[in-house]
Design goal:
Layout lengths: L2 H20 L5 H4 L22 E2 L1 E3 L2 E3 L6 E6 L4 E7 L3 H17 L6 H17 L1 H12 L3 H22 L3 H4 L6 E2 L2 E5 L5 H14 L3 E5 L6 H12 L7 E3 L4 H9 L5 E5 L2 H11 L5 E5 L5 E4 L5 H13 L11 E5 L3 H13 L19 H16 L3 E4 L14 E4 L6 H4 L6 E7 L2 H9 L3 E2 L1 E5 L3 H8 L6 E4 L14 E2 L2 E2 L12 E2 L1
């Protein structure tokens, strides 16, 4: 064996030892040798469907051209390539959609037997399942999230929301005993870009199940799966005008919110826009729900199963590139285990694969837009200027598209902006605490109150802590687990009202 071969053999043994200890090669660049111990590319195919070059508005059961004839381009954030042209709806188009929804409500939907309404919703769920592969691919192409997440979480959960609400459609008198639940009429809905199809399901399914008709606006950057859902709605035979989809920008959403013939407004998005909507609806008779931002605390106590907690933290902040309103973006760690946790987190994010969202190996995909990427970069600079210690993955980013390395900040204080403000990206801030009460105080010391997590081996500690944290959803020894039967929503600047479960039906009813 030559001298060079002996050196390579020694480094190969080091790599194998590293695999045995950590389950994967830990930063092979530091080992400085070329290895085949890498995942082979596993791209999802796109040849099973074809996107249209241009998508119109979906009003009164048909695809119609926008009144002003304007279209805009929607892109793939991983490549910046144009996917399709999308109709830009104006207040005139919104008015047509609301009139169609009102007519459908008065003449058809409100007169149907409840079991027939249930059948329509169930049919939508089944068709979603049948076209799940197509929906998953389009969700990833248009949104930038890894195909594994679209395939295994977003699409199945969207279908589950339709299934669940279909079950309640003819049982509302059981859901609310002693009351006489009645639909409100026309629901105006505006949804965000981080979970396009899932948010559409969260909004449309309960609205239909309670007997309302819908006018919905998807986010301008991710309209494609909502428009594919319009095709499903047509295929399901839903009466014309029951669901209307108007694409566009913020002014389109504002036209829906402010339309005088809309009875219920449902909005998911930023706290800033939520406040504008709340002011606009003040003094009106419209019911509304707002699901806004978050800055969730994920708390690790010294008696927690640390390796399990590390995986929960990774899932909590890096799932969907951190584009999650309930992301565990603040980590609180008990002092005695801080060094262990920070080391394990650094090792773990070094092994996360950042890259092509269509590759089944990818853990972190593309940031949804250049505007959002610029915002994340700005907060990264803010964190450094505030004096925080930082660590970023050493991974190579794709040359095209919008990508950001998974990032940790520690040595931060409660007053730091990166601790208090929602970044909405793959950036985790880490603080320490000594006592249970200090953890609770720090968790509650934020303007938000959407979610949180607790990691401990003591059941009594779980009940003590979660009952004192002012947040709508709290997970114990897990994170980011969703179910259509469970209500979701927050307090303070995280919004008001609930979606999912029986709680999610109430805002669409008068009793």
């Amino acid at each position: 064996m030559s001298k060079k071969e002996k050196v390579l053999d020694k480094k190969s043994k080091k790599a194998i030892e590293d695999i045995a200890m950590n389950g994967s090669i830990n930063n092979s660049r530091k080992l400085n040798f070329d290895t085949s111990w890498q995942y082979a590319p596993a791209p999802e195919s796109t040849d099973h469907f074809k996107l249209k070059k241009k998508y119109d508005l979906f009003i009164n059961g048909k695809f119609v051209k926008p009144t002003d004839g304007k279209y805009y381009k929607t892109i793939n954030p991983a490549t910046t390539e144009t996917l399709a042209e999308i109709a830009y709806g104006t207040d005139k188009d919104v008015d047509k959609a609301v009139k169609a929804a009102r007519k459908a409500y008065n003449e058809v939907w409100s007169k149907l037997p409840r079991k027939e309404i249930a059948k329509y919703i169930y049919r939508i769920a089944r068709l979603l399942q049948e076209r799940s592969r197509e929906f998953a691919v389009v969700e990833t192409l248009n949104g930038g999230k890894p195909i594994r997440e679209s395939r295994d979480i977003d699409i199945p959960l969207a279908a589950a929301h339709f299934f669940y609400n279909a079950g309640w459609a003819d049982k509302l008198h059981y859901a609310f005993p002693g009351k006489s639940p009645q639909p409100l009429g026309v629901a105006g809905q505006v949804i965000p870009w981080n979970f396009p199809l899932l948010m559409a399901a969260w909004k449309i399914a309960p609205a239909l199940a309670t007997g309302n008709t819908v006018v919905i606006k998807p986010a301008e950057t991710t309209p494609l799966t909502a428009l594919l859902l319009a095709e499903v709605i047509q295929e399901a035979g839903l009466p014309d005008g029951v669901v209307n989809i108007v694409t566009g920008f913020g002014d389109t959403g504002a036209a829906i919110v402010n339309h005088p013939d809309v009875n219920k407004v449902a909005f998911t998005g930023s706290t800033k826009v939520g406040k504008i909507i709340q002011k606009a609806l003040a003094g009106t008779e419209k019911k509304y729900t707002l699901e806004l931002g978050g800055k969730a605390a994920n708390i690790i106590f010294e008696d927690a199963p640390i390796d399990q907690a590390i995986e929960g933290v990774i899932n909590g902040i890096f799932f969907n590139q951190g584009h999650v309103c309930c992301a565990g973006s603040r980590l609180l760690v008990q002092e005695s285990v801080f060094k262990t946790v920070i080391k394990k987190l650094q090792d773990r994010i070094e092994n996360l694969i950042v890259g092509d969202p269509m590759d089944k190996n990818t853990d972190i995909g593309a940031i949804n837009s250049k505007m959002q990427l610029d915002k994340i970069k700005e907060y990264y600079e803010i964190g450094k200027s505030e004096g925080a210690s930082s660590f970023q993955s050493s991974c190579n980013l794709p040359k095209k598209g919008f990508f950001f390395r998974p990032t940790l900040f520690w040595d931060v204080a409660q007053s730091h902006r990166v601790v208090q403000e929602e970044i909405f990206g793959p950036v985790l801030t880490i603080q320490t605490f000594r006592t249970v009460q200090e953890a609770i105080d720090k968790a509650n010391n934020t303007a938000y109150g959407l979610s949180g997590g607790v990691w401990t081996d003591k059941g009594s500690k779980i009940f003590n802590v979660v009952n004192k944290i002012r947040a709508g959803v709290l997970w114990a020894n897990t994170y980011n687990k969703f179910d259509p039967t469970s209500p979701f929503g927050g307090y303070k600047e995280s919004g008001l009202g609930r979606e999912g479960g029986l709680h999610g039906l109430t805002p669409y009813l008068k009793m």
